[in-house]
Amino acid sequence: MELAANVALKVGAKAEITLYIALSERDALTVHREGYLDPKLFGSYIPLKLTKEDAVQAALEGPDKSAAMMAAVWSSRWHVIEIWLNSEQVAEFMLAKTLTHSTFRGQPAFQCTKILDLEHCTWTVIEIAPTGPEAWSDTHLPRHNFKGMSGRCNTCEGADLPPQYYNTCNACWHAFYLARAQRAAAREAEEAEEAAEADKDLHCDTKGAGSDDGRAVRARASKSAGQSEH
């Protein structure tokens, strides 16, 4: 296994590199609309990988927790961006320390703190099978609260379970968080619909008020004209 530092040296020698990042459907819409990758979308840096597979795995462990939650029980689509950096870009980024090497699951990776223009990048879509509640829990449940033994789940009463989080199995915790996320999404959709209706009503009221004002102005103008004739 190559160390990230060795890969960085090879990048400097070769003076070019191809990197990948995967996005959920929601984030892909945002990035495609804006036309660039902003480190703020991911926290403080853009997590770039050397393979598409690592990019998708990193996305499953990334900030879009709802997408990872859905991916545990349903097949999911991930938008992978292929970013090719030429010799000038590599030199510029590394000298400025906006592109630095790191590791991901023991594999070489890179972090970029610079906004990346995506005008000439290639987009592909990868569909993956459900990852399962266990894979989701490995990333998204706090490991320090896991019990180091198997036993019976307090919620579903299932036996012979893997190490549990507060005596509740991975599947039950996933079902709990998934239900909560779905309720939150339903509330957001309802609030968005109510806001759209309110805007529509306000627009109609404004048009109506505008028409009344117009009629009042015309009536005053007509009255003034009549008085002038007399």
- Count every helix, treating DSSP H or I runs of 4 or more residues as helices: 7
Strand adjacency order, main sheet: 1-4-8
Radius of gyration: 28 Å
Structural class: alpha+beta
Give me the count of strands.
8
Global morphology: flat
Order of helices and strands: HEHEEHHEHEEEEHH
What assembly state would you assign to the polypeptide chains in this entry? single chain
**Main β sheet profile:** 3 strands, antiparallel
What this model shows, in words?
This protein is an alpha+beta fold and 230 residues long. The protein has two domains: 4-131, ADP-ribosylation fold (Alpha-Beta Barrel); 132-203, no CATH class. The chain has seven helices and eight strands; from the N terminus they run αβαββααβαββββαα. The strands form three sheets. Strands 1-4-8 form a three-stranded antiparallel beta sheet. It has a three-stranded antiparallel beta sheet with strand order 3-6-5. A two-stranded antiparallel sheet has the order 2-7. Strand 5 (99-104) and strand 6 form a beta hairpin. It is flat.
In short:
This protein has 230 residues and is α+β, with helices and mostly antiparallel strands. Helices cover 50% and strands 19% of the residues.
